[in-house]
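INFO  loader      accepted 1 record
INFO  loader      residues=575
INFO  predictor   begin
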Amino acid sequence: MGIAADFVLIVLAGLAGGVLARLLRLPLLAGYVVAGVVVGPHTAGPTVTQIKDIETLAEIGVALLLFSIGLEVSFRDLRPVRAVAVGGGAIQLVVTITAGALAAQWALAAGQAESIWFGAMISVSSTMVVLKMIAAGGYLSTLASRVMIGILVVQDLAVIPLLIVLPQLMTPDGLAGRLAQSMGLAAALVAATYGVGNYLLPPLLRRILGWGSRELFLVAIVAVGVGVGAAMHAAGFSFALGAFVAGLVLSESEFSHQALSDVVPLRDIFGLLFFVSVGMLFDPAYAIANWQLIFVAVLAVVAGKAVILGAIVRGFGYRNMAPWIAGLGLSQVGEFSFVLARAGLQSGQVSKPVYDLVLTITVLSMAAAPLISGLAVPLGRRFQRRETGDPAVVEARGHVVVGGFGRAGRAVARALREAGAEFIVVESNYVLVAGIKAEGYTALWGDLSQPEILHAAGIDKAKLLLLTMPDPNAVNLAVERARAKNPNVVVVARSAKASHLGTLRELGVTAAVQPEFEGGLEMVRQGLTWCGYGGEAAASITDGIRRELYANEFEERPSGLFVLKPDHLAPDDKA
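INFO  predictor   done
INFO  writer      dumping tokens
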């Protein structure tokens, strides 16, 4: 059966590995990697024969994962972390490559060129592993995850110039010109993708949806992702990076949510192939023969990258858990290390022993990544207690917690101050916190969807939680975790759109508000009043429109409020 038999073997082995991982309470990807070791060419028993074909399919899995993440993460999401992503990502690459090169010269007696190759190979983190961990934990919209995604994008982009520069270490003539040409071509491809995604694809996808064919819509969406990836690959760039760019472009469209839901099952199956193929690269005999070197190397690489990345994130003004989460979350060596390693071996500048060592470090660090990343919060809490004690926790009872200090949050805070209510503002943008405090408000910097930030804000004693953040994922996480800590807290949440209201109702918010919709109604009310309608008539019209939006998901009270139905309310809210 050829590759078909290999595919069946991989799926069955992946299922067994996944079940074992769940029984041991380990992440699924660790089970997939172990399955790859079992069916790989370096162990006895059933063995995958068409390894090259499986690796090709695995590349599709990487592309589909990055495409789906691109659909969820828009350019707007990455804008707040662009400084640490671009500046911090560049610094991290330079520092890690330098440190890795010095370590290779000292510990491996490698030559200058090979040492630089070694530093470059360990400098990149695994986009596939990190995004899988973030998606599995539901943390895609948290501040720390955005920092990590921004740095990962910079690392992936850096692979292109590295592949151009490193093979020319011995013959640097004309290098600047080739690098400039490559970067210009990349910019042109991204611009072309943006144009196609914004002007050509929407009419085509609307036409397909008009035919009522979900199957054809899925085919069209996948074609966009792999098509852009193939175009980037043909131009000498990463296939997976092209798919990520395509996802980012489509994320700004009205089709992003449906496209994501359709692609996810396909992505997960191909993602299984990637992690199994990673395990197939691992040679237990080599690891046993060189276990001391490998143990020290993996420990040094993971610890070194964690310290470098954590220090850089903290240096860019991020405090609390973000440096720990980013440092440990990005501490593994990534899949693009395989690409660099192959290029180095083919150029003759990387020896077979160093190639095998980097390959083993990459596989082991990727397999251990979920466990290492899970240490971030407990280690961060312990360090904070030693450094400054526990974060200041609000001691008041019956206070208000305000999430976000944008335009809506600022208005909420001002009204609460006028009413004489005791409240605390929680803002994830560190730059804004100093200004909030300067205006006389009590403020806490951090991501309100994180349990430790909710604890610091005193959510367990709060009477009211007002969530004004525009990001629906951040709102959802904050509601879920706040309810877990304080089932009786009254939650009023911002709804990103009408379809978000149902999700908020299921999560148990007391009431939901859609600011843009409410602003439009107020404009209509004032316009009708100026056109000669009486105040009561204008209010009656706007109230009817408001009732149509909210009443499907919430119950209308005599006061005009739309709140959860009594069966869903906490005991204190029913009064």
